[in-house]
Amino acid sequence: WPMHVRVISRFQSTKEQKEIIKLLEKGDIDVLIGTHRLLSKDVKFHDLGLLIVDEEHRFGVVQKEKIKTLTANIDILSMSATPIPRTLHMALMGARDLSQIKTPPPGRLPIETDVVPFSDKVIRDAIIYELHRDGQVFFVHNRVQSILQMKDHLQELLPKVRFGVAHGQMDEKDLSRAMIDSMEGRFDVLISTMIIESGLDMPKVNTMIINRADRLGVAQLHQLRGRIGRSSRKAYAYLLVPPKFEMSRMARDRLAALTNFSSLGAGFQVAMRDLEIRGAGNLLGREQSGFINSIGFEMYQRLIEEAVSEVQVEQEETRKIEKPKELKLKLDTDAFFPEDYISEGGLRLNFYRELSRAKDLGRVEEIALDVQDRFGRFPDAARNLFDLVRVRILGERLGAENIILRAKEMEIAFSTEGVSRERILEIAERSEDFPIEFNVVGAVTIRLPLSKIEHWRDKLGYAIKYLSQVTRLAEEVTA
To answer: According to the model, what pLDDT value does residue 330 have?
Structure first.
């Protein structure tokens, strides 16, 4: 390309870095590729128009806020196989555009992932198997203080195997030499920290052993696993963990996510599971995990969606976004997911969010099947919740403004602005099977007696049946 392209990182000398920064400020460099060094105070751009952030998950909120201050108006493209929960949540809400690449390279095979207790036999067998098929191995030990002891232990275990070591605290020349030696096949096994998480493409390395995998995050493990299986050969990832009772519940959930989503292109599903485990984060602050407890997640979600809607305008002209009137719904009994049914708060909130967005009964049935498949038979409160969502959808289709479900009756109120009184009367005349009473004081109210029905489950079922028939009748009248 007819462009001046340069690279900046700690592998350049101080003199080279100063020369690059000077050329950048003058506008003599068209494209600058760099590490976090680009965010240093001495880096100034002549006219920055496009910023591409590769491996977005490696940048924290502080770095992202720094990026936004580089210039007033730039386009930003962030790329990652596993975006952090906060970024993914912003994309799902519409605050960012989202594109997915799901097609794997030709000939690529899924990586077989196993979670196993730490064992010398497992390590020995895995390394010997890979070396017998003329391959290499990554052994990840994410503790610089004890990485050399681990090398000594593995050398005793396999005296004829050539081991190398790489970690971020090594001198630049030593680290560069270790990586080059590994790429050129002078090592059979490279023992490293998380420094190999991204950027490496070594087709001969098709076995990875990760020590203390329970201490790493879902995205980190998925990124590490992506360093192997980069050819047409079957790859194997071994996640070494202590005995089960020593792991936290969250660690077990993270490892389960890795084994469940091991197919090609599973990064998005892994990131979604990470969002469920860690939480959505704070869009307006620095927190990357944890829910907005002060106002509740649903309210926070609604406020953000309203704010996003307000700033989204057509390119040709500014247009008003009409917001449909929200149905007010009240139920005089419990309707929620109990903690002893779905113990994880993030999962509960995710299902609440899905239900709040459901616009038709078919989608509610899909969510219900998913929940039952994962957690078993509904308790009463969970069943009530799904029925309440069905009532809400039917009520919105009918044009109702308020629906109140009490022990003795269901009350449906219509605004005379939204639904004509004549339409309600015609619906009432055509639904003689139902006992209906009208109370017109600025609105039309239908009352459905429920006192003869004993259980809430049956009351809700009757209400859904009634609303289904009245909705069908209303649509026929309109037609």
So the answer is: 80
Q: What pLDDT does residue 164 have?
A: 94
CA dihedral (445, 446, 450, 455) positive or negative: negative
Q: Which residues of the chain have pLDDT under 50?
A: 280, 282-297, 314-323
Integer Cα distance of 99 and 354 in angstroms: 21
Identify whether the C-beta of residue 190 lies closer than 8 Å to the C-beta of residue 136: yes
pTM above 0.85, yes or no: no
The pLDDT of residue 120: 93
